[in-house]
């Protein structure tokens, strides 16, 4: 168990340090930070210019210094991810950051092709290899579920396995003012 903190500004670093001192593991996250992407100008690669790349490397060092046990490096050029992985002794986990991080992660919704959106032809990030396309199968199953719930076909007797003894049910109905069961 751990907390993931995005960014390496002074307030985040202080928070990370306090958490680590309190015995709570902290994983850093630099590059594209999805929970605060709007402050970065949207879902855009980070560290594509030398000044920004140097800042990412310094952020990685600061996160390590604050006690983070690892860090996610998201949507940065492979060369930058490689350099910052070499600059720290903690593991780096890349997502859209090339092949030179300590490990890799993908959002399973993306790699399984689960996401479909009627207004966007492409919702899977361009760095994500899609290993399957189960989105239409999932959507069809969800629509069947919705239809069965609306028609009260589901859950039905098969998926309503918990019963009360007749005497207990009659007592319950009497206590709440309902007619006895048939």
List the main descriptive attributes of the protein structure presented here.
182 residues, 2 domains, TIM Barrel
Order of helices and strands: EHEHEHEEHHH
**Helix percent band:** 25-40%
Whole-number mean pLDDT: 91
From the N-terminal CA to the C-terminal CA, the straight-line distance is 51 Å
Structural class: alpha/beta
Shape: elongated
* CATH architecture term of the largest domain: Alpha-Beta Barrel
Indicate the CATH topology of the largest domain.
Answer: TIM Barrel
The top level CATH class name of the largest domain: Alpha Beta
In terms of DSSP E residues, the strand content is 5-15%
Main beta sheet: 5 strands, parallel
Number of strands: 5
Indicate the radius of gyration in whole angstroms: 25 Å
Count of spatially separate domains = 2
Low-pLDDT runs: none
Total of helices:
6
Catalytic activity: (6R)-5,10-methylene-5,6,7,8-tetrahydrofolate + 3-methyl-2-oxobutanoate + H2O = 2-dehydropantoate + (6S)-5,6,7,8-tetrahydrofolate
Keywords: Transferase
GO biological process, one term: pantothenate biosynthetic process
Pathway: Cofactor biosynthesis; (R)-pantothenate biosynthesis; (R)-pantoate from 3-methyl-2-oxobutanoate: step 1/2
